Amino acid sequence: MSRPLVALAAAAFAILGGLPLVVMLARVEAADLAGLLDARTLELFGRTLWLGLGSAGLALLLGAPFGFLVARTDVPGAAWMRPLGVVPLFLPPLLIALTWTVLTGARGAWPAVLVLGTGTFPLVAVFTARAFERIDARREEAAILLGGTRGALAASWRLVAPAALCGACLSFVFAVNDFSIPDYMSWVGPKFNVYADEVFATWGQTSSPGRAVAAALPLVALTLVSLLPALALRRRGALATLDSDFQRPRPLPLGRWRWPAAGFCLAVLAISVGVPVGRLLYEAGGGADWSVAGLRGAFSRALELARDDLRNSLLLSAAAATLVVPVALVLGHALERSRRARWLEPLVVLPLGVPAILFGIGIIAVWNHPATASLYDGPGMVVLLFAGRFGAFAVLIAAGAVASVDPALEDAGRTVGAGPARRLLRIVAPSTAASLGGGWLLVFVLSMRELDAAIFVPAANATAAFRVYNAVHFGRDDFVAALALLLTFLIVLPGLAWALLGRRRLEVLP
Amino acid sequence: MTPAFALRGLEVHAGRTRLLGPLDLTVEEGEHLLLVGASGSGKSTLLRAIAGLVRPTAGTVDWFGERASDGPRLRLPPERRRVGFLFQGGGLWPHMSVARTLSFALRSSGTPRADVARRTAELLELVELTGFDARRPGTLSGGERQRLSLARALAVSPRVLLLDEPLGPLDVELRAALLERLGDLQRRLHLTVVHVTHDPEEAAALATRRLRMQDGLLVEDDS
Amino acid sequence: MPRLLALLACCLPLLTVASCADADAVVLYCSLDQVHSEELIREFERETGIRVRAEFDTEANKTVGLVERLRQERARPRCDVFWNNEIAHTVRLAEEGLLASYDSPSAADIPAVFRDPQNRWTGFAARARVLIVNTDLVQPGEVTGYRDLLDPKWIGKSAVARPLTGTTLTHAAALYEVLGEDGARAFWNEVKDAGVSLAQSNGQTMRLVSEGELAWAFTDTDDFNVALDKGAPVDVVYPDQDGLGTMVIPNTVCVLKDAPHPELARKLVDWILSKDVEAKLAASRSAQIPVRGDVPHPDNVRTAADFKVMDVDFVAVGRAMEERQAELKEMFLD
Predict the structure, then answer these.
(1) Contact B188, B21 (CB under 8 A)
(2) Are the Cβ atoms of A245 and B90 closer than 8 angstroms?
C-alpha cells in the first residue's frame, strides 16, 4: 500500500483521535498516580468487572442466536426483524432504564445488567450475522450433507464464535464505562456504585486535571485489555474469506423450529425495542390521559422547538461518518495487510477506551487556540470530535472486511498496473462496500446520540441529543418522549423503509 | 538473446520459515519455461517473487536489464513490470463485468482512453468471449473464467506471462483448446512465459525448458 | 489517489465553516435549564439588539461540563458571561482567578449575603432545598427537617440525592459550615449507616414522591414545581424553620476575566440581575425564589424574606468544597 496514503490517514486519525488523549495524559504527574487503587476503589473496580461481564454475557446470549436466525435462516419476518434489531443502539440507555423501573419497579444490580445487556446485544447480533453470511455456500452444503442443519451449524460455529465474542467484548466496554445506569437502578437498598462513578466524581471534585486523568487510567486499562482479545478474535474470525467465486449461503430451513425461533426473536425485540419505544409512545401521548391528539401535539412541539437541532444532528453526524470512511478504508487495509501496521491496532482502539469527559477536555486543550479558533467555535469541531471518538469503529470494521477479501484480487490489480489508490478505490472499496456502509452507519448512529464529550464543544449545543437530555431534567415527559422518538425514528426509518421496500436487500444495514 | 529476467541468490521467508531459495534462474526472452513440482514446493511463491508480489528476504531480481529488487528493497513494483499474471483460481474481480475487468486493466496499464473500447473488443475476440461483456465472473463457467483471466493478463501487453496452474480447473477438451490458444499467442506476440503446473504432461509440447521445484529449490527435471 | 483526495477535499469546507454565530455576539455559558433560560435570552436580544450566543449545560454533566470548559479555555477565553444555576462552583472559579470584578448597578439592592465582597459574582433568583411530600402518605407536620431522614419509620420511604454532585453536594457541604465539621460528618455517617435511600438526582426524588413510591424526599423548589404543575398529590415543606433554617442556593452570574466582549458582557449581566428578570424567573415553571423582598411573584413562590433562610457563608463553602467532596466521596462511593 502506498506509504504516503497510509501516513496521511494515520496522521488524520492521530490528530482526531489520539492527540486529545496524549495532551491529557501529559498532564498526569507521578504524585497523581499515588494511592490510585485503594480498598475502596478496588471494590468499585470489582463491581465494574461484574457489571461488564454480566452485560456482555447477556448480550451474547441474546445476540448470537438472534444474529444467526435473522441473517441465515428462514425464520418468518427476518427481513424486518434484522434492521429492527439495531434499534436498541439508538435508544438512550437511561430512557430504557427509566422504562423498566417504571413498569416493573425492578431495582439493583441485576436489572442494571438487564438494561445494559439488552441495550448492547445488537453489537453481538451484528457481528454474528455478518460472520454467518461470509460462510461459503459450498462449505456449508458439504457440512449439511454430513450432518444436516445441525452439522452445518457445528462446522460454522468455529468461524462465527470469534465474531460473536468480539461483539460481546464491545458490549463489555460499553457497560464498564457507564455509570448512570447502575446509579439509577440502585437508588434503594445497597448502592451499586461502579468505578465510572469514581472517575466522574473525581472530575467534579478536583481542579487538578492530572489527578482526574489518573483516576480514569484503571478504567482505560480495563477497556483496552478487553478490546485486545476482541482484536485477536477478529483476526481469527478473518478465516472466512470471500474469493471471486464466493457463493452466498442459502437460508437454512428451521423446519418445526421456525415459529419457536420467530418467537425468540420477537421476544428479544419486544424486550429491547418494543417496551421502551412503546413506553415513549405512551408518554408522548400524555401518559394516563393518552390521546392521539396529545401524541400529535407532543410531536409537533418537539419538531417545532428542535427542528434546527435535529437538522444539525443529522448533518454533523453524517459529515463525521463521511469523513471517517475513507480514513478507515486506508487504515483498515493497512492494519490487515501490512505486517508493520499491525502493532498500530491497539493504538487505533485507544479512543474507544477513554471516558468521554477526558476526550472532551482533550479536544479543548488541542483546539482552543487563536490559530484554530474559528474551527473550535464552529460546527466543524463537532464533526472532528465525532470522527475522533468513533472513527476507530469504522477502522476495525474496514479491517475486518478487508480480511475477507482474497488478496489475489489486489495482486491482480497490481499486475495490471493499478497503483495503490486505484486498487483501494476500484477493487478493495467495492468488495467491502457493505461493511464500509455499516461502518458509516455505526459512526453516524453513535454520533447522533453522543453527548458526554460533545458537551465540551461549543457547536454541539445545537444538537438533538443535547436538547433531549436538557429536557429530561426538566421532566416534560411528553416532550422528551416525542423528541427521543423523533431522534430514533430519524435514524431507523430510512433503513427500515429500504429494507422493507427496496428491491435489493439493504446490505449496509449490519 | 537478452535475458527477460534473472534471479540471483533469491530467498523468500515467512517469519523464520524458508519458503524459497536460495536460487538462481535466468529466463531468456521468448522462452516458455515449464515449472513442475508437488504442491507446496514453492512454485507459486516463485511466480509471485518474479512478479514482485512478495518481497524477497535476500537476492536480486533483474528485469530486462534493470534491477527490479535488491534484497527486500523493491525498486520496480509489480505495477510497473508489465507482467501478465494468470492467478490460480482466477483472482477475478467479482464486482466487475467482463468488459469492465478488461477496461480497468487496460486503463491501469496506461492504454489511452480512446483505445480502450477497441482493445477490449479485440481481447474479447482473442479469447472468444465476444458477447459476454456484461456478465460478471460469478456467472461464468470455469473455462470462460480462465479465458477472461488470460485476456486480463494480456491486456497489459505483458513482457512476461506468468501462469499459475492455468489449466487446473478445466476438463480435458478445454485444456487442449486453451493450450493451443496459448501456443498460438506466444508465437504471435513473442511472449516470455513461465508456466507453473503440478502435472508434468501439461504443456510439455509448448515448453522450451523444464525445471522442477522441490522444497523451495530448483532442480533439473530428469523425468 | 486523486479521487480519494478529491473526496477528502469535499469534506474540508464543512470543517472550516466558521461558527454560524457571528463574532460580535456576546457568549453566555448558562447552566440554568435551557427550557427556562432560552426564552429570557431571546427577550434580551429583542430588547437590546445585542446577539447572544448561548451554550448550555446538560443535566447529565451536572454542571461539571461548563465549569470544566471555563477552566480549560483559560488560555483563550471565549465565554463572556457565566450564568450558573448554583453558587459553589462559581466561588471556586473566583478563587481560581478566572472571574473579573464587576459591580453591577442592578445588584445594588441584592442582600450582601448573595454578593461577593470583591464583586466577582452576584447571586439572584434562588432555589431552596425543600422537602417534597406526598400528601396521600404524609400528614401535615409529620416531617419538619433534615433529621427526619434518620427516623426509622421513614427508612425506605424517604430519600435524598447522593450528595456528590449538584445542589445536594452544595447543601451537604454547607452543613459542614453550619453544624461544624464533626456535626456534619456524624450526620452524613448516620445517613449512610441507617440505609437512607440515595437517589440519583433531585429530579428523581421528585418523580418518586409524585408517583407515591416514596412518602417524602429532599428536592429543589424548581423540581417540586414541576410535580405541582403536573397535578401530582404533593406539598412542600421548608425544612428546619425552628432550627437551622432552609438552605437557599442562588443562581450566580459573573463576567469572565479577559472576556472577548467585556462591554456587552456587563450589559448582559445588568439585564440578568434586573428585578424584571428575577420576577420572570419567579413566574416561570422553575419558580425561582427572588432574593429581593420587593420582587413581584406568584402566590406559590415565596421570597427569601418569607421564611427562615439558613445562614451560610458561601465563600467559605466554596473554598472548602474540594475537601468536602473528597470526604463525601469516600463515604458514599464505595
Answers:
(1) no
(2) yes
CB contact residues (below 8 A), chain C span 42-101, against chain A = 54-62, 64-65, 68-69, 71-73, 75-76, 78, 92, 96
**In this predicted model, what pLDDT tens digit does every residue of A17-30 receive, in sequence order?**
888 888 888 888 88
Peptide bond just before C13 cis, omega within 30 deg: no
What distances in angstroms separate CA A129 from CA A73, A156, A399, B127, C174, one per listed residue?
A: 11, 12, 17, 40, 56
Mean pLDDT of C198-227: 89
Q: Residues of chain A whose pLDDT is less than 50?
A: 238-241, 244, 502-510
A9 Cβ neighbours under 8 A, 6+ residues apart:
A326, A327, A330, A331, A334
pLDDT higher at B157 or C236: C236
Q: Is the Cβ of A434 closer than 8 Å to some Cβ of chain B?
A: no
CA angle A394, A400, A404 (to 5 degrees): 140
Do residues A135 and A161 lie in contact, with contact meaning Cβ atoms separated by under 8 Å? no
The mean per-residue pLDDT over the stretch B152-173 comes to 83
CA-based nearest residue in chain A for residue B138: A245
3-state helix, strand, coil in chain C (%, to 5): 45, 15, 35
- As a whole number of angstroms, the distance between CA C95 and CA C88 comes to 11
Give the full edge-to-edge strand order of the sheet including B192-197.
B83-86, B160-164, B192-197, B32-36, B209-214, B217-220
- Can you name the residues that pair with C127 across neighbouring β-strands? C249
A383, C15: Cβ pair inside 8 Å? yes
Q: What are phi and psi of A213, to 5 degrees?
A: -65, -45
C19/A374 Cβ within 8 A = yes
List residues bridging with A252 in a β-sheet.
Answer: A73
pLDDT in tens, C273-313: 999 999 999 998 888 999 998 899 898 888 888 899 999 99
* pLDDT score of A187: 64
Element (H, E) at C218: strand C216-220
Give me Rg for the CA atoms of chain B: 17
Question: Given this model, what pLDDT does residue A1 score?
Answer: 58
CB contact under 8 A, A191 and C200: no
Specify whether the CB–CB gap between B181 and B214 falls below 8 A: no
Question: Hey, is A126 helix, strand or coil?
Answer: helix
Tell me the C-alpha distance between A251 and A133, whole Å.
10
C-chain residues within 8 Å CB-CB of A360? 65
Largest Cα–Cα separation, chain B: 50
- Do the Cβ atoms of B195 and B32 come closer than 8 Å? yes
From chain B, which residues contact A within 8 Å (Cβ)? 48, 51-53, 77-85, 87-96, 104-105, 108-110, 137-138, 145, 152-153, 155-156
Are A415 and B48 a contacting pair at CB < 8 A? no
Residue A94 confidence (pLDDT): 74
pLDDT at C21: 46
What lies within 8 Å, CB to CB, of A63 at 6+ separation is: A121, A122, A123, A124, A125, A126, A128, A164, A167, A168, A171
- Complex ipTM value: 0.89
Helix (H, G, I), strand (E, B) or coil at C133: strand
In which order are the strands placed within the sheet that holds B73-74? B17-28, B3-14, B58-63, B66-70, B73-74
| Lookup result for grid cell 477438451 | B173
Place of cell 429500504: A498
Query: Would residue C240 be called left, alpha or beta, if left means φ above 0 and alpha means ψ between -120 and 50 degrees?
Result: left
Q: Do chains C and B touch (3 or more CB pairs under 8 A)?
A: no
Query: Rounded distance, CA A55 to CA A93, Å?
Result: 13
CA distance A132 to A167: 14
Task: Indicate yes or no: CB of A470 within 8 angstroms of CB of C58.
Answer: yes
